Amino acid sequence: MADVSLNETEATLEQQLIEIRRELHREPELSNEEFKTTAKLREWLNTHDIRILDLPLATGLVAEIGSGAGPIIAIRSDIDALPIEEQTHLPFASINPGVMHACGHDFHATAILGAAFLLKSRESKLPGKVRILFQAAEETGHGAKAILASSGLADVSAILGLHNNPDLPVGTFGTRTGPFTAGVDRFVITVRGTGTHAATPERGEDTIVTTAQIITALQTIASRLTPATEPLVLSVTQIHGGNTWNVLPELVKLEGTVRTYNEEVRQLIPDKITQIIQGIAAAAGAIAELQWYPGPPATINDAHWANFSKEIATQAGYQVVDLAPQMGGEDFAFYLQQIPGAFVNIGTGRPYSLHHPSFDIDEAALLPAARYFALLAEAALNKLDQA
Ligand code: NI
């Protein structure tokens, strides 16, 4: 009998989570604009009598389950969507034109909400408190900083976070010790010269040819100016210059990103870029300038918590794999600079990659992820309590 009622409860929870995920998916909101999403999460938490901390956050929120002077651990989801036009044709596809949950943050928020429901039902048994994070603005790389500044993580001993991974089958769990996602920086380069007639380039400085040389030379940062043993990707992703066929423009603008793991290597990059662009521009008589916009550093998983998260994943019935480092970025890195913890991947087995307009997740991954994070949080509290 007990088994039957448990199965019924699980089936009800699964159905609930699927509906919640679809509701979030239907109304995606961009970074720092997650007002409706936050209101919905607040309502679902209120319905389950889960307390929400009073923090100075415009969007996103932090809830808390448990009581007493025991340890505190945090589980984190993110809630923002991307400026992408959805092409999934799902019945619950985005109704907000040009905005889509193309990174599966609807899945993350729902899984962590499900974990909160499960933890609430065991609140009296928890030897401490669990902070439940629904973080805004992950995609812009600044949401984690807002949570840290809000004191939402005060006295937290460890933090655990997830990302869906469409390349892993449902039922598979992956993580690693050490660097997991890369440090992400953005750059803008401006090349200026005197514009001139296309027929008489000698009367000005050809910013187009200069820019072409700069783009090629920038690739030598990875191949010649940093150690081959340190991963580094430099990609130029935008070029804007000129507006007609027979004039050489005064101005060309480039934009791109650099991905690294090693913080020392990362700190060298702006100077290397400046050296290259100024040298090439000077040879042409032009002027080049760099604007540098640092994003999140590399996500460095703590060995203890990465191993602990794998142990619990095995107990929860996941197939556990060690993943290779990824060159994508994640602002969870800011938490790990201050609090030990681990970032993990949950397999959602779908053909399209993150940020693709046809991106989707397999909803069969939802309930297991919710159960896993409830189990992980409680096990972490027990472990810290005994320490
Ligand atoms: Ni994401």
What does this structure look like?
This protein has helices spanning 2-26, 35-47, 105-120, 143-149, 207-218, 220-225, 263-284, 303-315, 332-338, 366-386, and strands spanning 51-52, 61-66, 72-78, 129-135, 158-165, 172-175, 178-181, 183-192, 196-197, 232-241, 247-248, 251-260, 287-294, 299-301, 319-322, 341-347. It has an 8-stranded mixed beta sheet with strand order 1-2-4-3-5-16-6-15, sandwiched between helices. It folds into 2 domains: 10-181 and 298-386, 3-Layer(aba) Sandwich (Aminopeptidase); 183-294, Alpha-Beta Plaits (2-Layer Sandwich). Mean pLDDT is 96; it is low at 1-6. It is built from 10 helices and 16 strands. It is α/β, with parallel strands linked by helices and 387 residues long. Nickel (II) ion binds next to loops.
